[in-house]
Design a protein that fits this description.
2 copies of one chain form a homodimer. Chain A starts with a helix and ends in a 5-residue tail after the last helix. Chain A is α/β, with parallel strands linked by helices. Chain A has helices at 3-9, 25-33, 47-60, 79-95, 111-121, 135-143, 155-163, 194-204, 218-227, 248-255, 279-284, 296-310, 333-356; strands at residues 14-16, 37-41, 66-70, 125-129, 147-152, 168-172, 178-179, 209-212, 231-234, 262-265, 273-276. In chain A, helix 3 (47-60) runs parallel beside helix 5 and helix 9 (218-227) packs across helix 13 (333-356). In chain A, the strands form 2 sheets. The first copy, chain A, has an 8-stranded parallel β-barrel with strand order 1-2-3-4-5-6-8-9, surrounded by 7 helices. A 3-stranded antiparallel β-sheet of chain A has the order 7-11-10, with no helix packed on it. In chain A, 42% of the residues lie in helices and 13% in strands. In chain A, helix 7 (155-163) links the parallel strand 5 (147-152) and strand 6. The first copy, chain A, has 2 domains: 3-72 and 107-261 and 322-355, TIM Barrel (Alpha-Beta Barrel); 75-105 and 266-320, no CATH class. The first copy, chain A, contains 13 helices and 11 strands. At the A-B interface, helix 7, helix 8, helix 9 and helix 13 of A face helix 7, helix 8, helix 9 and helix 13 of B.
């Protein structure tokens, strides 16, 4: 079976986006059981935890699901860099009454070991973000029976994933919440709206394209399919789902977001990501290009963000969200998906009526 | 009749975007005659020229059409500002062997006089970009029988247009080529992808929404309609049309654009706009925030761009284009539209088949 056939066989062509901090196995399972394809965000799991985590999902469902890894570069920053970054964060830790952490020994999980654990556990699908696999790594996943999806923010990145043998492309549009997945060019040169990105990637590579960014309801799903995507990936749309583990202040911020509330920021993690603008983003904006690159800054702000979440303070916490977050709705994931699919069917019927009745020159 | 009813009555729900420098009345007429709605870019016409220009279109077609005005602020820059800006441009003029222009007396057409001429000429539709009309100005257009469309890049701008009585919103997504139309917040806070922008504006205002940005073919048209737009606005898709007046080097650059070729720049006009990246954009990037605001810089680079076009030098010319420009195709506008509409009908049929056959839980 091909990935295209798998996606085409889904009762509902909706993929739940991996969201570190907001989605765990419960959401993945709920989405896959409701006829979509859930993606388990396993980037923060240690290599030893990955096998059991994937086995646990496999044990309770025969539905297809995916896992996602973030390909963090190996970080061995100078002590002075870490000290300076911590010094800059000190007032924020102090404001929360949280202790400034010591310089960590490790800044992210070891990707090669994580990948080996994924190959061993053989999930139906695995997607990758922030960099690109080698052809040998893709082959290893294929030998395990795992489909490989590469995240691309540009046509060039989609071509690169096709060249290493990926089975499909997740086209991450400008609208998407959370981290940008670019890996070839700088951030600014890697910002393409979902509408343009899906159309141009589809024209450039022969692989199935998964549309991501700005898809919040059944109309969005229908639009993604009309564009030629094989499935619609939705993350922010699941942020308020019962099965999401979105923290209280993050959830409340998403529920009460005003018009046009998101911005890109590098301040929280050292890599550009989209979230609801808050005080940390505003006040760090002028120095965001100076913080150490991901994963270093990400690791150094983790205790700060955990403390802010515990204190229910939305101003010092990363509130990742996509551009149309105001359309997010609460409820059980399965119920949300049923509603979206009914909306998509209605949108398809409306579109058919509109196109059939026109075009008489 | 309402604007919604007018758009719904179009044989093909495609609006040709106004493109100063690339579109004139010939393209407007071709699109309207082919069942769409052409928009005549009259921003550079003097108030005295506007009446006859609109009358000439009315004389040869009963099909609906629109006109577009750019609401340039009145500019009275200090002589020192103009001199400094010209000094910065001097090497570019010199490279083309073109004389450095004297400081102009006028930097843009007088908007109030242009608007009065439009009211007098009473075109079926008028759209406005860069700012917002007063309720009295909207009333005057309505009294003349002209529908008013406001360009919005954010939900807040759409709400503002609804509040002054506009009949519809042109939702200009991040992907769109040419000038950004924001007028409430700064550029960075006014960049929303088409997918998210159409969905959120549609949820926020009761007016018909025209989707613009990244729509390059029939699949894009179908996607825009599925999202709930009343029509799809296409500009870059017409850049290579026979009836477009796109200059030779601009046309060639669009035809040969590689992957992911556009960027936003402020360097050419003092207002952010999207175009194919060239030497002027790259070399002026570091100082683009220092050039005088639109319309001053726009006026000061006009002779440079005209000289570059005449010399067929694509490196010193604004090559406005949207993000999916690689999908632009040559041909007569009517033929392009027929092809896009057939594609949209096919996309609708495919979508119906996909949604009808799924969702069995």
């Amino acid at each position: 079976m091909s990935l295209a056939a798998l996606l085409d066989s889904l009762p509902v062509p909706i993929i739940q986006a991996p969201m570190v901090g907001a989605s765990l196995d419960a959401l993945t399972l709920a989405v896959s059981r409701a006829g979509g394809l859930g993606t388990y965000a396993i980037a923060t799991l240690s290599p030893a935890e990955i096998g059991p985590a994937i086995a646990a999902v496999k044990a309770v469902t025969t539905a297809p699901f995916g896992v996602n890894l973030l390909m963090a570069p190996k970080a061995e920053p100078d002590a002075a860099v870490v000290d300076a970054a911590l010094a800059r964060l000190a007032p924020w830790y102090a404001a929360l009454g949280a202790p400034l952490p010591a310089a960590p020994n490790q800044f992210a999980q070891d990707f090669d070991a994580q990948l080996a654990a994924v190959v061993e556990a053989a999930p139906p699908m695995a997607s990758f973000t922030f960099s690109i696999l080698t052809p040998a790594q893709v082959d290893a996943l294929h030998a395990a029976g795992t489909f490989v999806v590469g995240t691309a923010t540009t046509v060039a990145e989609a071509r690169a994933w096709a060249a290493v043998g990926a089975d499909g492309i997740c086209a991450q549009g400008f609208e998407a919440g959370g981290h940008r997945g670019h890996f070839l060019a700088e951030t600014e040169a890697s910002l393409v709206g979902t509408m343009a990105l899906v159309a141009t990637i589809r024209a450039a590579v022969e692989l199935p394209v998964i549309a991501a960014g700005g898809i919040m309801d059944g109309r969005g799903v229908a639009a993604a399919l009309a564009l030629g995507a094989s499935a619609a990936q939705m993350g922010t749309a699941f942020l308020l789902a019962d099965e999401a583990v979105t923290s209280k202040p993050w959830r409340r911020a998403a529920e009460t977001a005003g018009d046009d509330p998101t911005r890109l920021t590098r301040a929280f993690t050292g890599r550009h990501a989209r979230g609801l603008e808050n005080r940390f983003m505003r006040e760090m904006k002028g120095v965001q290009d100076e913080v150490p690159a991901y994963p270093v800054q990400n690791r150094l702000t983790q205790p700060l963000r955990a403390a802010a979440a515990a204190a229910e303070d939305p101003e010092m916490l990363s509130l990742w969200a996509g551009q149309a977050v105001s359309l997010a709705r609460p409820g059980a994931a399965g119920g949300l998906m049923r509603r979206w699919w009914a909306e998509a069917q209605q949108a398809a019927a409306d579109l058919s009526a509109r196109t059939a009745g026109r075009g008489r020159y």
